[in-house]
Amino acid sequence: MAARLLAHLRELASAPQERPSAERREGILTPREQEVLDLIAQGLRDHEIAEQLVLAKVTVKTHVQHILRKLGARNRAEAVARARVGLP
Fold it and tell me: How far apart are CA 69 and CA 56, in angstroms?
């Protein structure tokens, strides 16, 4: 997972992209979505996230879908990479 994340970071950093204003980046994720994203970044799976946050697994899946959509990411590793480097 770490190798994939680093590869995505390098790919995203090298791709020319329009940087959004600070206002657009702030608050893009809800506090709960940010918690879920942080746990994804730690390598936890949906059922582990659900247990830790005391949520239903289907609720975690919904949060993950929202995170991917809001960050314009194709997968979890890309979402983590985009969030960490502040890309849209």
Answer: 20
Domain range for 13: 2-85
Q: Which residue would you say has higher pLDDT here, 82 or 33?
A: 33
Residue pair 1/77 in contact (Cβ under 8 Å)? The answer is yes
Q: How many domains does the chain have?
A: 1
Residue reference for tokens 């506090």: 31
State the Cα–Cα distance between residues 5 and 9, nearest whole angstrom: 6
pLDDT tens for 5-62 read 667 666 666 655 544 433 334 468 999 999 999 999 999 999 999 999 999 999 999 9
Closest of 1, 25, 15, 18 to residue 77, by C-alpha: 1
- φ/ψ of 36, rounded to 5, equals -65, -45
* CATH at 14: 1.10.10.10
Q: How many CB atoms lie within 10 A of CB 37?
A: 24
